[in-house]
Amino acid sequence: MLSTINLPVTPIQSNGKAKPTRPLRIALVGNPNSGKTTLFNALTGLNFKVGNYPGVTVEQREGEYTYQNRTFTLIDLPGTYSLSATSDDERIVSNLLFGLAPSLVPADVVVVVVDSSILERHLFLATQVIDLGLPTLVALTMNDEASAKGRGVDADKLSQGLGVPVVEVVATKARGVDDLRQVIARSEFYLPPPLEWLLPANLKAAIASLADTISQQRGFSPGILKQLALQLLLGQADDHLAGQLPGAAKSVAALRTSLDEQIENWREADAAWRYRLIHDVCKRARVKSPGYIPTKSDKVDKVLTHPVWGLVFFVLVMAVVFQSIFTWATPSMEAIRGFFDWLGNAVSSSMPEGPLKGLLVDGIIGGVGGVLVFLPQILLLFLFIVILEDSGYMARAAFLTNRHMRRAGLHGKAFMPMLSGFACAIPAIMAARTISDTKDRLATMLVVPLVSCSARLPVYALVIAAFIPADQVFRNIPGFTFQGLVLWGTYLFSLAAAITAAYILRKTLLKGETQPFLLELPPYRIPYWRTVLTTMWERGRLFLTQAGTIILAANIILWFLLAFPSQSSIRPELQAQMDEAQAELSGEALETRLGELDSLVAAEAMGNSYAGRMGKWMEPALKPLGFDWKIGIGLIGSLAAREVFVSTMAVVYGVGNSDEDNLSLVERIANDFSLLVGLNIILFFVLACQCLATVAVFKREANSWKWALFMFSYMTVAAYLASFVFYQVASRIWPEYA
Amino acid sequence: MFKPAADTDTKTSPPGLSKQLVDCCQGESVTVVSLDPSLSLGQRLRELGLIEGSQVVLLKLSDPLLIMVKESRIALDPKTAKGIKVFCRCINDQPAS
User: Fold this and answer.
1) Between chains, do A118 and B72 touch, taking CB under 8 Å as contact?
2) C-alpha angle A268/A274/A275, rounded to 5°?
3) Is residue A24 classed as helix, strand or coil in its secondary structure?
4) Which of A44, A423, A568, B72 is most exposed by smallest CB count within 10 Å?
5) What's the ipTM?
6) Exposure pattern of A120-134 as b/e (b: 16+ CB <10 Å)?
7) pLDDT tens digits, residue range A332-378?
């Protein structure tokens, strides 16, 4: 039955607190893939903000909604299987619920999101949260799916079994969401009755003794104290909890030794009693399991996780993704390009000549417009990544690639950061947090920036459009063009470069065993459009705000470097040539000649500008790569963000050509560079770490300037050497293309 | 609130017949006997439901392995699977690499 509010049969206890006037803080807790984010979106609408938790880079999503004239703050916590945290994401959850981190504002109410189709496993976390003694309720998701399979959960009976309210929600259809709001509004007065821990007496005594030790150092509520003591005993030696409660470490070690002597397999006792309780609750709340019956997901997995057919499908998916980025994005890109051209012309014609006009038209409109034009491609890439994640395919991709990843010395989970790296190295480096082993994580973080991110896409797109024909690869199969093929090849090459770098790193600087692979394959689900669009927009917006501000600043600085020192007079030889042309020529011939001379004047002015001087200073080092000083300026600019290379080139070429010259940037580059130089720009950008934001995030994540600078240096050296060898070899073999 | 019944699911596997999970056959339903104490992910495996007496279906005997436990599909590497002792009837001649 839908939309039923199920309150516990046991009398609801009031904690006697007066109704607080500040917004009630609701923490959404649940296993990964429990439908937590969809529920968060349904509850808050689009009224949320995304940031980072203090001191770490785990994404923090907080939203607000109003119900019965009262404001509620909703915190979407990272997915976790248990309160025994094994990664930074999970540590945020346990730190917030235990009240361990002073920087995290504690929650007043906890909503545990439980997936009906994986009920037992999801209830494990629910029982741990109930132990804490905080006002708790369960949001039961996917029960429509489970009911369709004849295994629907009776929410009333589940509520009776757990002693907390259970609300059934179908967030994708907004069913039960209002009921959930109603129960949340009252839940601050509910405290769940404590669960009876059926543990061996010696273990109970050890927990009580440890709880006593902890309480002498810091005050905690009884429920939290008990769970903290249990997690401390069960945790690893280097556990984060032990680090936060250093006074308890001695007792923990002594108690573990004593328990090892007294009880065989005492570490299993907690999970065992919880699962027995859960088993009994589930027995009453739904029909008995008929045993293993292959689900649709299992049938699909027979093909998609097959070592051969699975990989074929994986490669095809990736090919379609990258092909679509080129083909589908074109109409909207044309529209954006048209708009910025119109805006530039409109501003240009309504302003007097001078530095301000140059700044506005060339620096701001030209530069930002030149990068915004690639937003459709970036949004499409994010769209695919979100769909792959939410459909459950991303986990299958990790399953398939694990063996290959391990050969390179990377953890199977490294595939997730690697795939995210195709969008942006910054979230990808952050995504490496799911890997708990330090060396595995560091290896992943070091190679992820080699995977071609979306910021490189504008550079690839520019060069590919300039040099590679848009012809069809197969005459009979529409859509597959040489341009798409080269782009796909570039991405594959970047992946190969990352894997090679990982292999070398794990054999040298980061020697050691890789951590065991453990990954849940969630059931396949059709992604919910609202979650997909919200996440896509959110990530697109972050990219835009980051790129927008950096690019604007970079463009103003670049415009300054290009426009100053301004040249007031024209060299006498050039002035003489102009005078001569005006005296001897007329009509079209005069205009052509003056246009040529204007270009020479502008080129000279730029050659004397600060940027020109810097580029020329760098030219001897860049020459063996086939690069000139103009590319040198682009490389300097791209350190702010890779995509700035495109806008820099737009500025460089905008200044370097006469106003009558209407050639697009692509055409100008095609005229100015050779094919080998174009390909070498791509090669350099694949390997180089042309992104200071990546270096900054790396430092924050690894907490080490040494490793951050190592990452920047090894990539830059690799890029220079590879481009050097490529150009020197290729220009000797194919001098006609050099 | 219910209290859990006595432990009826556990200790069903006769001692001496337990094997490593990797030595069982694909598609077989097996019963967990114990986890190697040296497994670094032991605690997480227990939380996911791999405790004595649990039923596990070996969905894919590959690298990584795919198992079903507590209705969820979990992928794990053969090395971890070697640390999971189970009771199974079928003898597999071609274990996962």
Assistant:
1) yes
2) 85
3) strand
4) A568
5) 0.86
6) bbbbbbbbbbbbbbb
7) 888 988 898 899 889 988 888 777 887 888 778 876 776 677 678 77
The alpha carbon of residue B91 is apart from the nearest alpha carbon of chain A, in Å, by 20
How close does chain B come to A235, measured CA to CA in Å?
A: 8
pLDDT tens readout for residues A256-274: 999 999 988 899 999 999 9
Reported confidence tier of residue B6, pLDDT bands at 50, 70, 90: very low
Q: What is the DSSP letter of A315?
A: H
Q: Provide the token pair at A657.
A: 């050509």
Determine how β-strand A109-115 pairs with β-strand A24-30.
Answer: parallel
Distance of alpha carbon A25 from alpha carbon A369, whole angstroms: 41
What is the nearest CA distance from A520 to chain B, expressed in angstroms?
Answer: 4
Q: What is the spatial distance between Cα A386 and Cα A391, in angstroms, rounded to a whole number? A: 8
Ramachandran sector of residue A519 (left: φ over 0; alpha: ψ -120 to 50; beta: rest): beta
What does the pLDDT look like over A606-640, one tens digit per residue?
Answer: 677 888 888 889 899 999 999 988 888 888 778 76
CA distance A86 to chain B (A): 8
DSSP annotation of A8 reads: -
Cβ contact B63–A403 (<8 Å) = yes
Query: Would you say A198 and A37 are in contact if contact means Cβ atoms under 8 Å apart?
Result: no
Residue B5 CA: distances (Å) to CA of A9, A116, A279: 20, 22, 9
Torsion-angle region of residue B91: left (phi > 0), alpha (psi -120 to 50) or beta? beta
- What is the predicted pLDDT for the residue at A14? 45
Q: Quick one: which H or E segment has residue A692?
A: helix A692-702
| Nearest by Cα to A558 from A606, A513, A494, A599 | A606
- Report the alpha-carbon distance of residue A129 to residue A257 in Å, rounded: 28
Mutate to test the interface with B, among A521, A524, A525 (most CBs of B within 10 A): A521
A:34-63 residues touching chain B, CB 8 A cutoff: none
Helix (H) or strand (E) holding A415: helix A415-421
Tell me the C-alpha distance between B50 and B34, whole Å.
Answer: 8
Task: Say if strands B84-87 and B18-20 run parallel, antiparallel, or are unpaired.
Answer: antiparallel
Two tokens, residue A501: 């770098």
What are the distances in angstroms from CA A16 to CA A13, A20, A98? 9, 12, 22
Question: To which H or E segment does residue B67 belong?
Answer: strand B65-69
Yes or no, beta carbons of A267 and B46 under 8 Å apart:
yes
**In this complex, do A121 and B49 lie within 8 Å of one another by their Cβ atoms?**
yes
Q: Tell me: pLDDT of B2 over 60.
A: no
- Tell me which residue of A90, A89, A77 sits closest to A40, measured CA to CA: A77
d(CA A340, CA A561): 23
Q: Find the residue in B nearest to A192 (Cα).
A: B1
The whole-number pLDDT of residue A549 equals 67
Write out residues in chain A with pLDDT < 70, as ranges. 1-21, 51-58, 236-239, 322, 325-326, 367, 370-371, 374, 434, 436, 479, 542-543, 546-552, 554-555, 567-569, 599, 602-603, 606, 640-641, 651, 653-663
Q: How far apart are CA A314 and CA A305, in angstroms?
A: 9
Q: What is the pLDDT of residue B8?
A: 39
| Structure tokens given for A105 | 């504002």
Closest residue of chain B to A400, computed from CA coordinates: B64
Give the tokens for residue A214. 């902890």
